[in-house]
Prior knowledge:
binds S-adenosylmethionine; SAM-dependent_MTases_sf; methyltransferase; Ribosomal RNA large subunit methyltransferase J; alpha/beta; RlmJ; eight-stranded mixed beta sheet
Amino acid sequence: MLSYQHAYHAGNHADVIKHVCWVAIIEYLKNKAKPFTLFDTHAGAGLYHFDADEAQKTSEFETGIVKLNSETFSDETVTRYLELCAGYTRNRQYPGSPALAADALRSGDSLHAMELHPAESDKLTRNLTDRGEGHVHLHYRDGLEGLVAMAPPRPNRGAVLIDPSYERLEEYAEVVDAVAATLARWPQAQIMVWYPLLSARAGKKAGASEAMRNKLADLAKTAFYADLTVTEKETDTGMYGSGVCILNPSWQLDETVTAALNCLAPSLADNADATVNWLKTEPV
Ligand SMILES: C[S@@+](CC[C@H](N)C(=O)[O-])C[C@H]1O[C@@H](n2cnc3c(N)ncnc32)[C@H](O)[C@@H]1O
């Protein structure tokens, strides 16, 4: 059962933290001339319209990208993210993760974007078909299965975005299993997993993200997480923020992510708060 549609949520505060961190990872990889491969296991439709019925129903884009658009930021990563978004937002659109990656890649780099929902996959194909001279590959398939099957890429430099909708409680465990299988084949993979931060009102899913990121950290050589909360946990009806767990991060990526999130948090909400912590470091 795949009922989640990202069009209701595109451009919200959760997309902002996820996409800022994804852009930071890609820009770090671009510091070296050697080509790299990106995998986006849950790609979505790739492009969203603020005036679409779904977006108008929730107006969630107003909790994220719209708040940042009217401001100028000094942080390099936030600036780069907004630069990548600008061509879309000026047309009342928001780029999904595969569009951001496709725009940021160099001609020798590659992207594999996977989407399992048939209608979303069709939209992804329509929205990204003209991108990248042969180095953007779109797959209608299960992204976790596809990632394990395609790992490691050649050359084996690269990064992975895992961004499920967590509609089912079992998805948390499925992510851990897929990451374990991927790292067994591609130990140096840099893997970013997005997760929602859910209050007790989410029932069994409350705390599942925090438990998952601890299990993920056990699998990697090094790992840190970055959370961005936008409302108080106790008063929120559901998702009070979200975060990313980054396994095998590039050197000093934590500092870049900390600076970016601290820079944009005050613009997202009065009591927005960013936290970055290491879960696993190299033994000294
Ligand atoms: C949160 S959305 C992705 C948003 C996108 N990553 C972005 O940031 O623009 C999750 C997507 O995963 C898709 N999906 C769910 N299960 C999947 C699976 N096993 N493999 C690939 N895609 C899946 C859903 O249809 C949905 O479009």
